[in-house]
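Module 6 notes. Inverse folding takes a fixed backbone as the condition and produces residue identities as the prediction. Think of it as a translation problem where the source language is geometry and the target language is the twenty amino acids. Below is one complete input and output pair. Work through it position by position during the lab.
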């Protein structure tokens, strides 16, 4: 399990300022290649400009996933705010043949996001995005 305190801010001032603080606990459950990671939090403070963030972020993220023996990783993350929610799907596939050497492990990566809260500035705007790229693991 993980526990902690998080401060998140977009670093802006005035009407564009967004910030909030929360304490969280994140139990980690693993069974063979499957995992379940609920992250539960309590909001301790917010900026005046995003005082309704609980309606969009709620109080939990729930992650379900699988990581195969060949290190392929598939995850689904859901967040249900008090009035809105979001869904994120991530796929990570080893790509060792693309790079030589043993210092970094490259992965092909794809992500689909849909819902509210993708960015702190626009936490209350519904967005959908698809990304592809390469990630490296030490």
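Target side of the pair, the amino acids:
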């Amino acid at each position: 399990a993980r526990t902690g305190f998080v401060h998140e801010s977009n670093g802006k001032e005035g009407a564009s300022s967004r910030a909030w603080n929360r304490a969280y606990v994140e139990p980690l459950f693993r069974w063979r290649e499957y995992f379940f990671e609920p992250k539960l939090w309590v909001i301790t403070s917010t900026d005046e400009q995003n005082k309704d963030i609980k309606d969009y972020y709620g109080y939990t993220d729930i992650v379900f996933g699988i990581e195969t023996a060949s290190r392929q990783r598939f995850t689904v993350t859901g967040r249900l705010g008090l009035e809105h929610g979001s869904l994120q799907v991530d796929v990570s596939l080893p790509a060792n043949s693309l790079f030589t050497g043993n210092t970094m492990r490259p992965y092909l990566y794809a992500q689909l996001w849909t819902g509210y809260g993708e960015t702190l500035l626009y936490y209350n705007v519904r967005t959908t995005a698809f990304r592809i790229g390469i990630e490296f693991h030490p």
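Reference fact for the lab report: The mean pLDDT is 91.
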